[in-house]
Amino acid sequence: MIPDFQTVMLPFLQILSDKKEHLTRDIVTAVSDKFNLTKEERNYLLPSGTSRVINNRVGWARTYLSKAGLIAQTRRGAYLITDLGLELLQSQPGKVDVKMLSKYPAFDEWQRGYSGGASHEVKTEEKIEQLGSTPLEIIEDAFYKIQDDLAFELLTKIKSCTADFFEQLVVDLVLSMGYGGSRKDAGEVTGKSGDGGIDGIINEDKLGLSRIYIQAKKWEGTVPIDKVRDFAGALSSQKTNKGIMITTSTFPASAYEFVSRSNYTIILIDGKKLAELMIEYNLGVAAKEKFEVKKIDNDYFEEI
Q: Is 23 helix (H, G, I), strand (E, B) or coil?
């Protein structure tokens, strides 16, 4: 199990107790070994996929220990334990956490400085201490919770639209993902009876060298497997082997098994995935707030 960043603090200090300079990457390895992390745990990524969880937690432990004056940076990516850090280890603490660090004046001053006030400081530190999450993890968790709520609201909105609008929506989505060039040139909503289950046609590329057929159906329950088979048959009648089937509901496991064994390339997009793609490609949604998480650009501070 990957330790939270507060659990990492004491081992971090212990690794530096030899009074030698240690590189951050070596500390990550040593901490991973200390907790017997598996290969999968060592490579486990944050929800955003931007960095490994263990690297993130060791990084935040490093920041907090540094702000308390227990370790010091000697050069880029290298750290050394301070006399204050050695003094703490000599007291043989059972653990080192945010609550303990708050007793150090330098750490307390840093917290008050970046928190923007005592009230915000208390709320932030209580959440960090209770959850054991790093500030970045808290931000990411909140972001993806907001995304999940938006996806649910978006799918509810889609279900209230007419069938004709839904058919046009899915063509707009595929166009926004980079297929074809424009709605006029690349997207065509058929909407005709007797179309063999084809609701839209999209160019796979801007030159129109290959066409992809779309079926878009609003469905309340799970889509029956025979509907997926019928769509495959419709592709055969159109002399094509590529299709996208989109629904507002879900597909059964048998549908995914069928398309995996089929001679046709059929992509199944259920309601949840549809909403996620609309959010990703900004279709039917608009930005409300924007936050940027920045870090030090060490290259800027390299002296020439």
A: strand
